[in-house]
From TrEMBL:
Region (Disordered): 45-71
The CTLH domain, residue ranges: 326-384
Domain (B30.2/SPRY) ranges: 47-251
Entry-linked Gene3D superfamilies: 2.60.120.920
Entry-linked SUPFAM superfamilies: Concanavalin A-like lectins/glucanases
Organism: Centaurea solstitialis
Protein name, per record: Ran-binding protein 10
PROSITE patterns (UniProt xref): B302_SPRY, CTLH, LISH
Acidic residues composition-biased segments: 47-65
Amino acid sequence: MVDDSDSEQVQKELDLVGSYFLELWRLKSKRASASSAKDVEMVNLGYEDEELGGEEEEEEEEESVPTELDTLNSSGGFSIVLPDKLSVQYPTVNLHGHDVGVVQANRPAPVKRLVYYFEIYVKNAGAKGYISIGFTTEGFNMRRQPGWEANSYGYHGDDGLLYRGQGKGEAFGPTYSTGDTVGGGINYGSQEFFFTNHSQHFKGVCNVLDARKNGQVVGKVEKDVKGRLYPTIAVHSQNEEVSVNFGKDPFLFDIKAYEAAQRAKQQTYIERISIPQTASYGIVRSYLQHYGYEDTLHVFDEASQSSVPPITGIHDNGFNEHGVYALKHRKILRKLIKDGQIDDAFGKLREWYPQIVQDDTSAICLMLYCQKFIELVRVGHLEEAVDYGRTHFEKFYSLKEYEDLVKDCAALLAYEEPKKSSVGYLLEESQLENVADAVNAIILWTNPEVKDHKSCLHSYLEKLLRQLTACFLEKRLLNGNQGEAFRLRRVLLAKNS
């Protein structure tokens, strides 16, 4: 006879596993709702549909970026921002060294990325060409050139010097004048500032070095400021006029190629790290085991026999054979769910693992009932879906933790084209995958050798990727929360391009 306390503990553990996958579903629902709201906003602004995409694995809100020059934080009449808010003039004769016309961008440079970059075009170098481009902090003295004050950096056009926090410059790059374009950027990966020059003179000098037609990085310097930085330009002699490009128009400098080169450097460093062939083999094999891909596992083993040395101590490599538990059952159930045959999946669970579905209001039962409802909507059997929903959803309406998800399912009936609605994500293959993964994890949990329900949620490969993500975030935190997070999709796209 099973003790009631043991039965309650079993159900508690089952619910913990099921709740994890419910939260994944809930997160998807929130993203879909936010995406739908963004679509409406973008359509109202006149953007095309192809601009509405986004990475599914993105967990951070999009950062605001500089779009124009700040017209409120003035330098006291020594600069005039023109009506386009992208051009600035020096209207008078400078009488003193502090009569500088400094203008910052309306927002600080975004930080949660690999690179930020902007450019300026010198329309008129004026009387002396005292123009500069750089980065300054909030509260910067707007009567001083960038680089002349602490926590600021500036590349100056009249002498080509770089100034960083003091009045004395250092040799850096060529001068620039009327008709030239220069750029300033932040490389958050290497924690450096870099500047580019596209002057005709500089191109002529660099022809012997096979300079790119889109200009050159003239130099870089260590970035030792952790706070927010504003793209900044300054003018300092009569009739100087400069326009700025924050990315609305194409840059002269090939910033995408620069980013690709930086990523290639990172990849080269990673590829120098030696990983035993048996370890990588074990990671892939454990993934196939974990998700019940039995046929692929057999093919993988056969293909590896001649190329991978035998693994004599699989436990020594951090892997175990728990993944082979109920492999055939998990394979069959995954296929049934992926094919939309939910009733058959229910039947197999009742036959093989009755403890999983004995509580009709459990998280896993909710997912299966909802998926059956979704499949009826998918094939257009709406009346049957209504009847099914009335029969099986009623018991969940009183459970607050499930209310939002049941409402999402029911909302499918409200749209003529549910795929295009805010709940259209329910009809995507990824929803079926989530249900199949939930069933798979709960079956793994029934293995008597499993000590912790968390070990059933992810394969070793996924745990490795999660650790990698955590390491990237920790590195970013050490750099003042600046830099990009790890994105598996981006890595895969880069590999395939």
